[in-house]
Amino acid sequence: MAKKTLLTALALCLLVAPATFAAAEGGESNLFAGDLGNAVWTLVIFLLAVFVLGKFAWGPLLSTLQEREGFIRESLESAKSDREEAEARLKEYTDKLDEARAEASAIVDEGRRDAEVVKATIEQEARDEADNLIERAKREIDVAKATAIRDLYEQSATMATEIASRVIKREVSAADHERLVGEMIDELGDQDLN
Known about the structure:
Blueprint: H1 2-25, H2 36-168, H3 174-193
Helix pairs in contact: 1-2, 2-3
């Protein structure tokens, strides 16, 4: 750092020296006055300034700019790769989301189909049970009807026997009564079947 400062001071002295010498001689300090000595000193100072600036200013400045350019290039490449990776991840997530939606839709459809099958099974079981209840009720009605008809026949036979015994004024024995009732029931059953 001290070397840089020393060289910078030397360059300034060389730049100011011609003007100082010209002022000391009492002349004008115009660098372009046409004096050959002035032109040589100006050229020497210019070359020295270019050398000092090239050595201590432009080199580090150029290397700093190149480092900055490299950093920016790396940052851009990193950002590009990060963006590509994010896009790939987004596509992957989108694909997984679409797959999950399709799977959920398939599960819902399967649930509907299963519900329809269960519904049809329940309806068929209800119909079968209703048909069984109806058949059982019909059988019970037929049994009740036959019992009621038999009771009616027995009561009719008993009444007919009582009427007949009153008409003939004698009492019918229990055996005759049972025989007459059985005959009446058989006759009425035969008539009912016809």
